[in-house]
Amino acid sequence: MNKDDFIKRVMELADIQDKNTAERGAQIVLSILSHRLTPDEASDVEDQLPHDLKRIWNNQVWITNLYRLSGRRLKYRHRIELMSIVENEILRERLPLSAESLTKAVFHTLKEQITAGESEDILAQLPDEVREFFKAA
């Protein structure tokens, strides 16, 4: 699946009508997820993505820049924290998206893109509530 197919799938699952909005939303969720993982694990996921999708996997959004500059990893522990971070980025960019449906669509589409073993590796690094949300997506 290339980036266009990935974005189309996110649009379908989250009922998003605009491709640019969906792409920016996917970039937000993927960046927030990639910065929650260890650098090695984020790199392993990136290795399974097509070139044009790698660009948005570990991209910087405001919150990830803040944590990177502080020398810390993004460590949300609860589903509500993840949704709040995604929602803040959506609002900051004035995107007409629902944090929960967007995140679920991106997680689902990512799981379609990577191997089951890589999904399990991601799950192993997520806290319980976020792990369950990722599994259910």
Question: How is this structure best summarized?
Answer:
This protein has helices spanning 3-14, 19-34, 39-47, 51-57, 62-70, 79-92, 99-113, 116-125, 128-136.
Describe the 3D structure.
This protein is mainly α and 137 residues long. The protein has a single domain, classed as Uncharacterized conserved protein DUF2267 (Globin-like), CATH 1.10.490.110. It is 74% helix and 0% strand. The chain contains nine helices and no strands. Helix 2 crosses helix 7. The chain is globular and about 35 Å long. The relative contact order is 0.19.
Overall strand count: 0
Uncertain runs are none
Number of individual domains: 1
Shape annotation: globular
> What is the CATH superfamily classification?
Uncharacterized conserved protein DUF2267
Helix tally equals 9
Major β-sheet annotation: none
- Mean pLDDT score: 90
The percent of residues in helical segments reads over 70%
Indicate the CATH topology. Answer: Globin-like
Distance between the termini: 18 Å
What is the CATH domain class?
Answer: Mainly Alpha
Rg, Cα atoms, Å: 13 Å
CATH level-two architecture: Orthogonal Bundle
SSE topology:
Layout: H1 3-14, H2 19-34, H3 39-47, H4 51-57, H5 62-70, H6 79-92, H7 99-113, H8 116-125, H9 128-136
Helix pairs in contact: 1-2, 1-7, 2-6, 2-7, 8-9
Give me some keywords for this one:
9 helices, Globin-like, globular, 137 residues
